[in-house]
Amino acid sequence: MKRLIIVCEGQTEQSFCQKVLSPYFQAKGIVVEAPTIKHSHGGIVPWETLKRQLVEHLYEGNAFVTMLIDFYRIKDSYQFPGWEEAKTIAESQDKMNGLFQDMLNDMPEDLRSRFVPYIQLHEFEGLLFSEISAFKNNFLPTECDFDAIQSAIDEFETPEDINNKPETAPSSRLMAAVAGYNKVVYGSLLAEEMGLSTIRSRCPLFNSWIERIEEVCNNE
Asked: 72 to each of 104, 121, 124, 152, 167, how far by Cα in Å?
């Protein structure tokens, strides 16, 4: 079995990796490990801090390494490779793919073949807007504002495009729409309910990440 280490921004992403991604990759002969970011309390850290952890995992020698972190709230001061250039690019796919390439280029050359850079646009919670039936199957109308969820789905071309302003970010929308929303518990529950294939069909950047992981793991 091959090893895939997904460094997660926090417990929400970690739970998703363990409950949704792990079974998928396990069926393909890939064991998933999902540690959270070191030196963090459930949030993003400067690139150099994150990079040290990624390199440590890569130097274990027998693991493929990627990450699941949010674009939302990455600060200019965190100095992610290509960050300033990315801010000038309007098209989301081009912006993110440029960041991925710059992060890859910033890694030691001998480790690049086992590293798959990734940042989720805009938040992990955006993926949960892939299918409203998951909400209807798990919440009563008194517990969830289904119209608000559907409105967000209809407003944007893809769930990944749901914007990243504090009041309208995916996580903010969910907390406003779902009574007592618990992002760690409900995040993986909703994702499991809608299914990985549905999320992939609606979220092109996320789908491309899964495809790149498979390609890298199969080429080594």
From this structure: 20, 7, 9, 17, 12
Give me the residue label for tokens 């390199």: 55
pLDDT, one tens digit per residue, over 42-93 is 789 999 999 999 999 999 888 999 999 999 889 999 999 999 999 899 899 9
Q: Tokens at residue 53, please? A: 């952890």
- Return d(Cα 147, Cα 143) in angstroms, integer: 12
- 3-state per-residue secondary structure call for the chain: CEEEEEEECCHHHHHHHHHHHHHHHHCCCEEEECCECCCCCCCCCCHHHHHHHHHHHHCCCCEEEEEECECCCCCHHHCCCCHHHHCCCCCHHHHHHHHHHHHHHCCCHHHHHHEECCCECCCHHHHHHHCCHHHHHHCCCCCECHHHHHHHHHHCCCHHHCCCCCCCCHHHHHHHHECCCCHHHHHHHHHHHHCHHHHHHHCHHHHHHHHHHHHHHHHC
Edge-to-edge order in the sheet of strand 115-116: 30-33, 2-8, 63-68, 115-116
End-to-end CA distance of the chain: 12
* 142 Cβ neighbours under 8 A, 6+ residues apart: 179
- Are residues 3 and 62 in contact, defined by beta-carbon separation less than 8 angstroms? yes
Per the DSSP assignment, residues forming a β-bridge with 33 are 5
Threshold 0.90, pTM exceeds:
yes
